[in-house]
Amino acid sequence: MSKRNGTVAVVTAALLLTTGCSSPGGSASGDAGAPLVIGASVSLTGDFSDSGKAVQRGYQLWADTVNAAGGILGRAVQLKIVDDASSPTQVVTNYQNLINKDRVDLTFGPFSTLLTIPASQVAKRYGYAFLAPAGGGPKMFEQNLDNYFFVQPAPTVQSGDVFVNYVLSLPADRRPKTAAYAELDDPFAAPLAENVRQKLEAAGVRTVYKQVYPSETMDLSPMMGAIAALRPDAIIAGTQNEDAYSQVKSLVQLKFSPSVLFQSNGANSPMEFPDKVGAGNTEGILSPADWFPGSKAPGSADFTAAYIKKYGGTAQSIDDSSAEAYAVGQVISAVAARTNKIDNKTIISSLHAGSWPTLLGTLSWSANGAPSGEFNLVQWQKGKLLPVFPASVAQASPEAPKPAWGG
Amino acid sequence: MTPLLEVDGVSRSFGSVPALVNASLTVERNSITALIGPNGSGKTTLFNVITGNLRADTGRVRFDGHDVTTARPAALYRRGLSRTYQQARVFSQLTVEENLVVAGGFGLAQLFGRRVNRRDRQRATELIDEFRLGRVADLPAAELSYGQRKLLEFAAVLMSSPTLILLDEPTAGVNPVLIETMEHHIRRLHAAGITFLIVEHDMNVVMRLCDPVVVLDQGREIFTGPPDAVREHPAVLDAYLGA
Amino acid sequence: MRMRRGVGPVRAAVFFLVLAVAPTFGLAHWLLTMLVFTLMFAVMASAWNLLGGFTGYPSLGHVAFFGIGAYAVVLWFQHHDISSGYEPFLLLPAIGLGVALVGLPIAAIAMRTRADVFAIVTITLLFVGQTLAFNLRDITGGAQGASIVPAPFPADSYEIPFYDALVVLLAVSMGLTWATMRSKVGLSLAAVRMDEDKAAGIGVRVQTVKLLAFCVSVGLTAMIGGIWAYYEGFIYPQFAFDPLISVAMVLMTFLGGRATLWGPVLGAFILELAQQYFAYSLGGSRFYLIAYALVFLVVILVMPRGILPSVRDRLWRRGRRRIVDAQLPAGDGPL
Amino acid sequence: MVQGVILGVLTAGVYALMASGQTLIFGIMRVVNMAQGAMVILGAYLSYQLFTSFGVDPFLAIPATTAVMFTVGVAVQLIFLRPLHQDDRTQLSVLVTFAVALLLEGVMSVLWSTSDRSINTGYVNASWTVLGYQISLVRLWAFLLSLVALGLLHVLLRRTRFGRAVRASVQNPESARLLGVDADRIAAIGFGLGAATAAAAGSVYGLLYPFNSGSHYDLISQLLSIVVLGGLGSIGGAVVGSLVISVSTAVVASAFSPIWAPMTFFVVLLSVLLIRPRGLFGTAARGAL
């Protein structure tokens, strides 16, 4: 009866077998002149696709820049970027394919810790260095992978430290006395805000409200209403994107403007934030940033110019994910320049020592891939996002207290 | 000896619409009792109450001396009360044989046994032969004609060796030859000691087959008696012609 | 039911033999990885079929049990160290059994509702599971996710233990399906699917077989969840309780053919391989979703009963026979 | 707490509107429309586009978006649902409408990319202070609009010939056919109406929340809970279900903790189903509009 179906299954299996066996034996890199193929799986569809595309632009921009200058050690850089649809299953398949089927020379990381962990383990298994522009959550570093390097100034959780330092730098009578914490339940935002809370409590800032909210919460009004009723001096929010916008909108509707408003993410998006919350409502809001328009860090000016040339827009319209991805490439270029070699072993051993200048500042890594620098504090002033702390990078002095909504 | 089935003062309404109003009925052992009445008089509702598919609002149902007012259909089926449906509910994707086997009832232990074992097949084959379904025994019921499906459902209820069978319009929509076949089977089984309660529209069939006849109108029992008396009874004429 | 004796077992033996020896031919890692994921879905589709296919209760919440299985492995690793790396596999039967028991009261409530409402109630299960995974931080790690120590298998044969475990589970799942089809459980389930009230009325043990199908089905699903978590090395509520996994099980079963032995497996091999391959090679064109949806629609509209039944029908058209879980009777067409 | 209840009630209006379309479709055709959420999002995108390209206010755009979505709904019914066989239509329709949802998601992600969008009109952040409580203007308008739309739907079903035909087919498809009701036509128009309510709700939804092409997953799970809670096929039930769910969610979020808010309505739903498997206002065999 359905002998045919059985046959189909067998034939399929046999086909798979043969294609599997006949996959190229592959030459293990090293020939000068052959292109340097770099593989990365990026979320071009699905939940993380926005940042995924920004990451793709950053990688591409770096590759173009390097190739225009003759490539790396004479080898043209060739990117192979595939989509993981924001799926942890697909990301594993993709890195397997990149490493074992397409035999890429190097791998770059995907977007988000959630995908980076399974992906980095695949890379580790085959001895590939894994440089990722995203994936700075605590769980990532708990993996203790020696091939992993998080290309940002500090682990995400510590990106609020700069804000704490800023508060502590204020004279005692100008510090906020009370603070409310609204924390998005995801691998970064909530731990980040918790980290800030612990440090501020230790410094004597009283916590009057603390609440974690799930990521699918569309309506933050109930929570912001509860916060507004307590009238805290500071609102410290561990946010991602949309929730940051919603928080501000709710506060505007509730007619409550705290004297300090810190949002860990979203508010540092130069184009979207004013677009979503209204330009008049951005004034005085604080946020951490690694790269910002007008940064004086190494390569930043070139990057900005190249970005605008290739993708249009202004410096203000560049997503910092692109800058972070670009920095990943910068690190690779630097390794090649210093060691005159470009293989995974060299990359791994080199990066565990010394410091590496990038457009995000100078980076160095501990054994588990955690960077040991610090973020910058940026603030919205007159419609522009300006670094205000620490003084070494500040382009303006911090505005405090935050003015009322609408300017 | 007590009657096989006693329905005593059963009422049931749907929302504000009464379907049965204090209806009573008795089925004597080894009778072929007809239940007739105009459309919407509550015949099918009464069937459903008797078989436990519907719960009565008030009143009692006794079967074989036991109060079964709140019994579930499965329990009644195991006690020997089975029924057919007006639209012949058979399992369309099961074969004729399987339709019979599944109606045969089996315990937990047998659940893990073969789908159709030798004993099942033996019992089913007897019925298949009796009902002349041999040619289609291995076909899914969906392939049968309407009349064949009615026969199949009738045959299936016999698998559980019932004492009382409720037939809901056994001859509706089938050809004259099949009506005769149905009558033949009912007589044959009656002779073998099975009691019938039949809802039937075809008065000729009722006259030939049944005694007594119970007439239901607007949810009430209005007449019980021999078939000859039905036609002359004023209340019955009223019910059929008047309303 | 007179089946053509021998053909079924021979086909199964060949299939599993090919599966079992395939890795010894030195399949590339990328291919083994794809096969591992494909086998996961084959088992899950086959398990889903036991409930959704045979009973006709379309569960859209099976991934809730997948997630429970995944977190069970995580929990186990919180209290135990890894040594040989095989421990999670040995743990699987316990997970399957445990989740089957957990499923029992859930099934008893959910199966009070019928087809469409049941589908929705099971969706609810999925979200309850996800919310619990997010919020029971002490157990699950919440939104931080939970990581598992990577298996200490050598890189050369890293996928093999996972692969072998999955082949065994597929054999178990298909074996159970086969046994169901041949036993009165299958007969009863078919009756439930076609007319549950009538079946209950004639004394079919409706409740028993429904609950049985549900528990076995979710138990198998949970075991796959456990393997998946171990293979991924890191789980996160949104991934462990991903509605798309539920949808995939349903889709594969429908594609291959409901209430058939081979249909769900065929569906899984086609869909999962195609999906993994195209997402990789087409590099995330946004038309991917549209293409997927269109294939889905065309399959349902053109072959509403799935590939296997439709193909069989076409081959045996002169028999004009409908095959669902009733195997085709032998012989030539009706007389 | 009070703020929570106010919010809950205002939000319930929008959900009631979406859910009424869903339940109407089920009532007429016994089809659980998994694409209702995607249709709402499509409605939101349409009014987003009208707003950004032509500056049309989302509230004023509603007649246009509902008209477009009505057509989409009719098309979906005619192309994808009508060919299904009667026997397993319920099961298959769940899958077909889910596939339609995926299809719409794919189309939306191609047309508008996958990034979040929101409609920012000048008044989006305005609010009134009433007795010390803040009432967002948009939400109030959204609520009123939903009431009007539900009112229109009610009138349509109660006072027109089409409405009578619809109710007849909900009550008893067989007798409706005997009465000369063209079931296919009613189904097409019914699905169109369901899609139209989704469009109206979508315009409002876009004003209240940010959305992207994948937003429909969260939405559909809530809509399904609402209609099952209220009883499939009952519009009154959909309204009550929306109230129960959004008020309980908002109250739990503001008084207790937002992390348990999503759990709230699932718990409410499951406990209701334990007692009444057919929902609050569901009836056994017949639907009720």
From TrEMBL, chain A:
Domain Leucine-binding protein per the UniProt entry, residue ranges: 36-383
Keyword Endoplasmic reticulum: no
Keywords: Signal
SUPFAM superfamilies: Periplasmic binding protein-like I
Transmembrane segments: none
Signal peptide as annotated in the record: 1-24
Entry-linked InterPro entries: BCAA_transport, Leu-bd, Peripla_BP_I
PROSITE patterns reported in the protein's UniProt record: PROKAR_LIPOPROTEIN (PS51257)
The keyword Glycoprotein appears for this protein: no
Similarity-based family: Belongs to the leucine-binding protein family.
Name under which the protein is recorded: Branched-chain amino acid transport system substrate-binding protein
Organism lineage string: Bacteria, Bacillati, Actinomycetota, Actinomycetes, Pseudonocardiales
UniProtKB/TrEMBL annotation, chain B:
Superkingdom field: Bacteria
GO cellular component, one term: plasma membrane
Keyword terms of this UniProt record: ATP-binding, Nucleotide-binding, Transport
Listed InterPro entries: AAA+_ATPase, ABC_AA/LPS_Transport, ABC_transporter-like_ATP-bd, ABC_transporter-like_CS, BCA_ABC_TP_C, P-loop_NTPase
UniProt domain ABC transporter: residue ranges: 5-243
Transmembrane regions listed in the UniProt entry: none
Gene Ontology MF, one: ATP binding
PROSITE patterns on file: ABC_TRANSPORTER_1, ABC_TRANSPORTER_2
Pfam families tied to this protein: ABC_tran, BCA_ABC_TP_C
PANTHER family assigned to the protein according to its UniProt record, in alphabetical order: CONSERVED COMPONENT OF ABC TRANSPORTER FOR NATURAL AMINO ACIDS (PTHR45772:SF9), CONSERVED COMPONENT OF ABC TRANSPORTER FOR NATURAL AMINO ACIDS-RELATED (PTHR45772)
Protein name per UniProt: Branched-chain amino acid transport system ATP-binding protein/branched-chain amino acid transport system permease protein
UniProtKB/TrEMBL annotation, chain C:
The keyword Transmembrane helix is annotated on this UniProt entry: yes
Predominant subcellular localization, coarse grouping: membrane
Keywords: Cell membrane, Membrane, Transmembrane, Transmembrane helix
Topology with respect to the bilayer: Multi-pass membrane protein
Localization in the cell: Cell membrane
A GO molecular-function descriptor: branched-chain amino acid transmembrane transporter activity
Protein name in UniProt: Branched-chain amino acid transport system permease protein
CC terms in the record's Gene Ontology section: plasma membrane
Presence of the UniProt keyword Membrane in the record: yes
From TrEMBL, chain D:
Topological relation to the membrane, as annotated: Multi-pass membrane protein
Keywords: Amino-acid transport, Cell membrane, Membrane, Transmembrane, Transmembrane helix, Transport
Pfam families: BPD_transp_2 (PF02653)
Record-level GO BP terms: amino acid transport
Membrane-spanning segments: 6-28, 60-80, 92-113, 133-157, 186-208, 220-245, 252-275
Molecular function terms from GO: transmembrane transporter activity
Superkingdom in the source lineage: Bacteria
InterPro entries assigned to the protein according to its UniProt record, in alphabetical order: ABC_transp_permease, BCAA_transport_permease
Recorded GO CC terms: plasma membrane
Subcellular location: Cell membrane
PANTHER family: AMINO ACID ABC TRANSPORTER PERMEASE PROTEIN, BRANCHED-CHAIN AMINO ACID TRANSPORT SYSTEM PERMEASE PROTEIN LIVH
Family per similarity comment: Belongs to the binding-protein-dependent transport system permease family. LivHM subfamily.
Protein name: Branched-chain amino acid transport system permease protein
